[in-house]
Amino acid sequence: MSKTEKTDLIHTSIWLEEPEADNPFSARAAYCNGYDVYGEVLQQATYLEYLFLLFRGERPSAPVLRSLEILAIAIANPGPRDPSVHAAMSASVGGSPAAAALMAALAAGAGVSGGSREVYQAMQLWEQCGCAFEAWQTALDAPSGGGKMQVWPEAEHPPGFAPYGRQCAQPVLQTLAALSANVGNGCTRWLADNRDRLEAVADHPLAMPGVIAAALTDVGFTPTAGEMLSLLLRLPGAAAHALEQGENGYRRFPFFSLEISNDPGPVQKKVAEAT
């Protein structure tokens, strides 16, 4: 094939690069969905505006951007009780590198119980039921489908609702209130108005994945994209706690003590072995 017959081998509708005149492997300009990233976006957009542009291919409106900001703060640090943060802390205190700590957080935060897969399942319910209470009642009353487990185990509670506890946690209520106040109509507003009835049908209190799912549906994300974004947005807290725990060491690990009351110690152990 001659040089004139070569075609572009990079196929993506998201990204376009113009090469440097003297180096085809280095970009002179890069465009994300038509926007000049380093010539325009870099100085004029916020990080979340750029994320929305990457995922959705367009600039977010002011209400959509505010919803993303609220959501990003709510998700950023689930706290050390969360399995994803706990996993990152455990990896870091054990001496694992940064990448291992973040991969541990992704693995533990990806599941069907409080993880991104539960967000995906809850978003599927929004696609199926919309803002129709009767449809939600039917979906929540339906037993979990059986069948062969492929990747994820069967959920042990309705997606978007907490498996434990009898009332909705305060941070969940505060996040829902902030999101629903930002949009006049939509899933979060309807969820805020119908939360009590939905919790009664589900026999479980609303959980953060349910709020996340409603908000991401409001801003136009598909369940697949919502699952991906919720994984991404929860990493800052895992990273921060991993760094802190790496500095603190295993003796100051939260939740339990590693001190052994009857440990003879190295000196006493040598004496015991000698006798």
Features:
mainly alpha, 3 domains, 13 helices, disordered N terminus
Secondary-structure map with pairings?
Layout: E1 15-20, E2 23-32, E3 35-36, H1 37-44, H2 47-56, H3 62-76, H4 83-93, H5 98-108, H6 116-129, H7 133-141, H8 170-182, H9 187-202, H10 208-218, H11 223-233, H12 235-248, H13 265-274
Antiparallel strand pairs: 1-2, 2-3
Helix pairs in contact: 3-8, 3-10, 4-5, 4-12, 5-12, 6-10, 6-11, 7-9, 8-9
Quick rundown:
The protein has 275 residues and is mainly alpha-helical. Helix content is 56%, strand content 7%. The chain has three domains: 10-44, no CATH class; 61-76 and 112-141 and 156-233, no CATH class; 80-109 and 236-254, no CATH class.
Largest sheet: 3 strands, antiparallel
Share in helix: 55-70%
Question: Beta-sheet strand percentage?
Answer: 5-15%
Integer average pLDDT:
88
Q: What ranges have pLDDT less than 50 throughout 5 or more consecutive residues?
A: 1-7
- Write down the overall geometry: globular
How are helices and strands ordered from N to C?
EEEHHHHHHHHHHHHH
The strands making up the biggest β-sheet line up spatially as: 1-2-3
Q: Mind telling me the C-alpha Rg?
A: 24 Å
Structural class: mainly alpha
Number of strands: 3
The separation of the N and C termini measures 83 Å
Summed up, the domain count is 3
Total helical elements: 13
